[in-house]
Structures are given as structure tokens and as C-alpha cells.
Amino acid sequence: MESKELENQKHEKWMRLALEEAKKAEKIAEVPIGAIVVLNGEVIGKGYNLRETTQDATTHAEMIAIREACQTVGSWRLEEAQLYVTLEPCPMCSGAMILSRVKEVYFGAFDQKGGTAGTLMNLLEDQRFNHQTHVIGGILEAECGQILSAFFKELRTRKKKLKKG
């Protein structure tokens, strides 16, 4: 098997763990986004969206995963770490990735309304910052997008029923 295929399998393995985190969010009616931070082949941080639960705008999956990873390694620097997230990061999360020096970011679905890892702009690879993060999008894109589409479809259906009822 060629190395490119092995690399893809590795990324898919980690993204499936991020999807497991997203499913935890889905179970509690949060937007199903999940993230993990990997260092030396081990998960050192994980998280899923908790914004509605906490009523805290900063409790995105990536932010929670980064916080946990920093606590695990005892440093704010994650210079050799990879972050996997099911949806393209927003400006806040991209900023946290830059500031924590995450080495590589891999995401699933592209975010047409708020993605700052290539869609609206690419903060992570912007040469004007003192740190750049390598980015690859579209890992298990269909699966990552589907969980979000199904969630929002269900949410719209529930809202229509409430209006009628």
C-alpha cells in the first residue's frame, strides 16, 4: 500500500474520533461538531460543542479540545500537535490554533458561512501571523457534513411543528 493511502487512512481514523465527539453534542441537542488534538499518535484533548449548554460563546469543540490538550501537556504550546475537527474552524477557533501553535489542522466539512481555514479566508496559513498552521480540509467531508445537515433539518422540522401547534 502506498504511503499516501496510509496517510489518508490515518487522517480518517482520527476524524472518526472527532465524529464520535460530534455525536455526543448531537445527543444533547448541541450543534454536532467534534474535535480532537493528537500528539505523537495519542489523543491529548477532545471536545464537542457546548455553547447552548453553557451559554458561553467560547465553548466550541476546538476550544475545549485545545484547553484539554494544553492541560495534558502542561503548556500552552502545542507545536507538534495535530487538530482534527468535523467542521472548518471559525475565526475564534482558528485564532486559538494559531496562538497555541498547533502544527497541523485537518477538518471535515467546509463552512460556507464562517470558515476561516480556506473558505472565507485562511487565517491559519496567513504569513502575516508569527505562526502558520498547515491545513487540509475535506477529510470524511460527506460524513461530517451529513451529521450537520441532518441536525439542522431536524431543528427546522421541530420549529415548524411548534409554530403550527
Automatic annotation (TrEMBL):
Homodimer. GO terms for biological process: tRNA wobble adenosine to inosine editing. Residues 9-127 form the CMP/dCMP-type deaminase domain. The keyword Lipid metabolism does not apply. Its EC number is 3.5.4.33. The gene is cumB. Belongs to the cytidine and deoxycytidylate deaminase family. ADAT2 subfamily. This is tRNA-specific adenosine deaminase. Zn(2+) binds at H60, C90, C93. Its cofactor is Zn(2+). It catalyses: adenosine(34) in tRNA + H2O + H(+) = inosine(34) in tRNA + NH4(+). Catalyzes the deamination of adenosine to inosine at the wobble position 34 of tRNA(Arg2). Binds 1 zinc ion per subunit. Keywords: Hydrolase, Metal-binding, tRNA processing, Zinc. It comes from the Bacteria.
